[in-house]
Structure formats: structure tokens, C-alpha cells
Write a structure and sequence with these properties.
Blueprint lengths: L3 E6 L4 H13 L3 E7 L18 E4 L5 H10 L2 E4 L6 H6 L2 H21 L2 E7 L25 H20 L2 E7 L1 E3 L8 H10 L5 E3 L5 E6 H14 L5 E4 L4 E3 H11 L8 E3 L14 H7 L8 H14 L1 H18 L2
Parallel strand pairs: 1-2, 1-4, 2-3, 4-5, 5-6, 6-10, 7-9, 8-12
Antiparallel strand pairs: 9-11
């Protein structure tokens, strides 16, 4: 296989940056370009150690002229760029509409003009939530029922991709992933927030009673799934990605405390988030059977231990974010 030029939008964000690192380590046939607006969640430190191996462009995916130029120069775009934090979407929905909807439209038009290949990264949150006592899981044709401005904006972007495939023949695929965790995740998110609270000598904070259930997938497993879709995925199709390991938030906080040598009940309960979805669960049968995907971190404890070790060893990376993040949560009473 010859070299291919790969554009990664949002490549300085959590999952995007990990995708860049994973690609460079495992898929040398790609020459990688990253475009990132470098908002608070896009951190140049995430790709600092590989800047000599990639082409880094600071820019906005809503900039049609820039997207046109970058798509002309690349063969494939993997579209990670998104505003993604539910709490922030409740406080100010507009950036989510702008980046997640208009930005995706702008990329699609550039892809359409230049006849390139696109993979769109989405979330299982577009499906809404499931009852805590339900046995059903989300699947590729599950009806959309978003419950926050964030998930509604991602649902909208998914519909755009499907419409451009059908109307204009754009060569695109979609994946909806379960909750990711791992290195370079902003300290506003559940797992790194609790890890760094413990590292700074404070009690972790648990929303409500901690009953909300998520399916947790290590970011490296997610990114390997994306590469399989690029290689073998059927154009116009959607693939759900999930480890199959469902845990409630109480389990996550207690396990972090246990792995960090603290009593399991050494946490504080705080007010729940408005509209907090109860349960997410993906049926990832399709990507496992059709594309042969299998997660490396099938035991969540192993993945959490590796993640804790990373945050312990990389205080230089998360410390600058921490104070401002906790100030925002204090305003919200959480």
C-alpha cells in the first residue's frame, strides 16, 4: 500500500489526539495532517511529542476556504472535531450548533467537491438513554432520541452525513461510540476528574446517587475500530463501537478509589446534572463479526489502572486545566 494523506479534524482533542498517536504507531502508511481550533478542549500539548511527524494546522472546521484547501491536499478525513461536554451545552448551546452542525456541513461540502473519503465520529448519546433495568441495547438502526443540546447537535450531524451519502454519493461512514477513557482526556470528564481529585488530596464527586450506567471503552480500542472501518467498512453504513462493559458511575468512582489505595466510600455526593441520561449500551455485534474488531481492554479495571498510571505520570499535562475546571463545577454546585 502506498502512502495516503490523512486529515484528522479535532486532532488535538482527547480522542483525536489519541487517534493521531495510535495511527503513527500502528499505521505508517498514513501521512497525518491535524486541524484543530484549539478551544479549551483542544490542547497542543496532546500532540507535542509528535509535532515533527505530522502537519499541524490551527483552524476552524467552519472555515469553508480552509476545509476546501485541506481536502484538496488529503485523501481521507476522519472527523473528530466537536464540542462534546454536556454540562457546557446546557450552559451555552450555540458553540455546539456551530461546530457540530455547521462544521460537519462545511467538511461534507469539501469532501463532496474533491471526491474524498470521510469517516464521521459520533456518539451513542444520539439515541437518548435506556431504562436502568432494560436488557435492550442500542443498535445501528435504533431510533434517535437526543436529550441534550450536545447530543441533538451530534444527531443532526449524523443526519447530514447520511443525506450527503444518499443525495450526492459522498463516500462516508459513521461510527457511534460508547464513553471513551484513557490518556489526554480533559479533567472535566468523569474519570480524569475523579483521578485528579484524589491526586490533589480531595474527595471525588459523584452525581446524584451514581446510578447512571455507561459502557466504557478504552480510547485505543475505539481508535483501532475506526481504522478497521476505514479499511473494511461499507460506504454509507454505520458501526456501533463499545466494549460491552457496562458500569454505573458509583462503580467507577469506587474502583478508582480502590485502585488508588483509598476507602471505596471516600467520595462526596453532589447535585445531579439536568436531564442526565440513565443508561447507554451499544450492541457492537456488527463491527465484531463483519470487521473482526475485538477490544484489548476487556476488563475495565485494567484500563482504569493504566489510565490512573498515566495521570500520575503526567501532572504537567493536566495541572494547568484543573483549577479553572473545578471553578466552573463550583458555580454549578457540582
Amino acid at each position: 500500500m502506498g502512502m495516503k494523506n490523512l486529515l484528522v479534524t479535532g486532532g488535538a482533542g482527547f480522542i483525536g489526539a489519541n487517534f493521531v498517536h495510535y495511527t503513527l504507531q500502528n499505521y505508517p502508511e498514513y501521512k497525518v495532517t491535524v486541524v484543530d481550533k484549539l478551544t479549551y478542549a483542544g490542547n497542543p500539548a496532546n500532540v507535542e511529542k509528535v509535532l515533527n511527524k505530522i502537519n499541524f494546522v490551527t483552524g476552524d472546521i467552519c472555515d469553508a476556504e480552509l476545509m476546501d484547501k485541506l481536502m484538496a491536499e488529503n485523501d481521507i478525513v476522519v472527523h473528530f472535531a466537536a464540542e462534546s461536554h454536556n454540562d457546557n451545552s446546557l450552559r451555552d448551546p450555540w458553540p455546539f450548533m456551530q461546530t457540530n452542525f455547521i462544521g460537519t456541513y462545511t467538511i461534507l461540502e469539501a469532501v463532496r467537491k474533491h471526491g474524498k473519503r470521510m469517516h464521521h465520529i459520533s456518539t451513542d448519546e444520539v439515541f437518548g438513554d435506556l431504562a436502568l433495568d432494560a436488557t435492550e441495547k442500542f443498535h445501528e438502526s435504533y431510533p434517535y432520541n437526543p436529550s441534550s443540546p450536545y447530543s441533538a447537535s451530534k444527531a443532526s450531524s449524523d443526519h447530514l452525513v447520511r443525506a450527503w451519502v444518499r443525495s450526492f454519493g459522498v463516500k462516508a461512514t459513521i461510527s457511534n461510540c460508547a464513553n471513551n477513557y484513557g490518556p489526554f482526556q480533559h479533567v472535566e470528564k468523569l474519570i480524569p476528574r475523579q483521578i485528579t481529585e484524589v491526586l490533589e488530596g480531595r474527595q471525588p464527586k459523584l452525581y446524584g446517587k451514581g446510578d447512571n450506567v455507561r459502557e466504557w471503552t478504552h480510547v485505543d480500542d475505539h481508535n483501532e475500530a475506526v481504522h478497521l472501518i476505514l479499511q473494511k467498512g461499507e460506504i454509507g453504513e454505520t458501526y456501533l463501537i463499545g466494549s460491552g462493559d457496562e458500569r454505573n458511575n458509583k462503580y467507577i468512582v469506587e474502583t478508582i478509589l480502590e485502585l488508588m489505595g483509598k476507602p471505596k466510600d471516600d467520595y462526596t455526593l453532589v447535585s445531579d446534572r439536568p436531564g442526565h441520561d440513565l443508561r447507554y449500551s451499544n450492541d457492537s455485534t456488527r463491527i465484531r463479526t463483519e470487521l473482526g474488531w475485538k477490544p484489548k481492554y476487556q476488563d475495565l479495571r485494567d484500563g482504569l489502572k493504566a489510565t490512573i498510571d498515566w495521570y500520575k505520570e503526567n501532572e504537567w499535562w493536566w495541572k494547568p486545566q484543573k483549577e479553572a475546571t473545578e471553578a466552573k463545577y463550583k458555580e454549578l454546585g457540582r
